[in-house]
Design brief:
This protein is mostly helical. Helices cover about 70% and strands about 5% of the residues. The longest helix has 30 residues, at about 1-30.
Length: about 250
């Protein structure tokens, strides 16, 4: 039993090291502290972080799957140019939101949402059932209550659930898989102080409007209501970000 506990503790520690190093390297590439002109080696990273080669290799493999680094024979491992990054990868979104590129990331993500979520809302209305109608109304009602009481954590939780539910209800697998992207941007806005503790009355009402339109099975009004919500989201975000931060 003691051996099993020891193994579990070691695995947890290794996992924590992996996450720490992955965050460090990923953030360094996203921020530009590591560029395509730099060369990384397993030996140097092993010494820098004081970890085993296997942990370093695992981190580099993860970065490769995100197209943040590439390995070349006789050259080594080099960071990739930003045009090659997998920009839909949630970790990359998180690192960009924590970097000086936050404003551009928020703008592009909100524009993506404005293009996708109104259509997802229209499809959701077409797929509505009595049970899902109750659910979407309930989530929107809980968002309203959390917003009114300035319960930021609960509001964020319900906001993520609201948009994920609509994407899934659209029955479009491409839309559904965007939920992780949207979760990152909603979380990032809160984490980096781009959301007020008490959401504006209009924003709360617009979520209710979207929920009611979908629950009523009105596809066109669902799309229009979501479009209004997205337009407000983009406008509000742009007001909070100095134009000097945008490129």
């Amino acid at each position: 039993m003691a051996s099993s506990h020891s193994h579990s503790t070691t695995a947890t520690h290794t996992g924590q090291l992996h996450e720490k190093i992955l965050d460090s390297l990923g953030s360094a590439i996203i921020s530009g502290h590591l560029t395509p002109e730099d060369t990384l080696t397993i030996d140097s990273l092993e010494r820098q972080y004081g970890v085993s080669r296997s942990v370093v290799r695992d981190c580099l493999r993860a970065l490769q799957t995100m197209n943040l680094v590439e390995s070349k024979r006789r050259v080594g491992i080099t960071p990739q140019h930003r045009t090659n990054w997998n920009v839909y990868e949630p970790r990359i979104i998180r690192w960009r939101l924590a970097s000086s590129d936050r404003a551009n990331q928020l703008r592009s993500l909100t524009q993506l949402r404005a293009a996708v979520e109104p259509e997802a809302a229209r499809l959701a209305a077409e797929n509505i059932t009595p049970e899902s109608a109750d659910t979407i109304r309930s989530i929107a009602g809980e968002m309203w209550a959390a917003g009114k009481s300035a319960n930021t954590a609960l509001f964020l939780e319900r906001d993520i659930e609201f948009h994920r539910f609509i994407l899934n209800l659209s029955k479009n697998e491409m839309f559904s898989h965007l939920h992780a992207v949207i979760e990152e941007v909603l979380t990032g806005r809160t984490t980096h102080g781009l959301m007020s503790a008490r959401p504006h009355q209009d924003a709360l009402q617009q979520h209710l409007d979207v929920a009611e339109a979908i629950a009523s099975g009105d596809g066109e009004e669902s799309a229009a209501a979501m479009q209004r919500l997205m337009r407000r989201t983009l406008d509000e975000m742009m007001e909070r970000i100095p134009t000097t931060q945008l490129s």
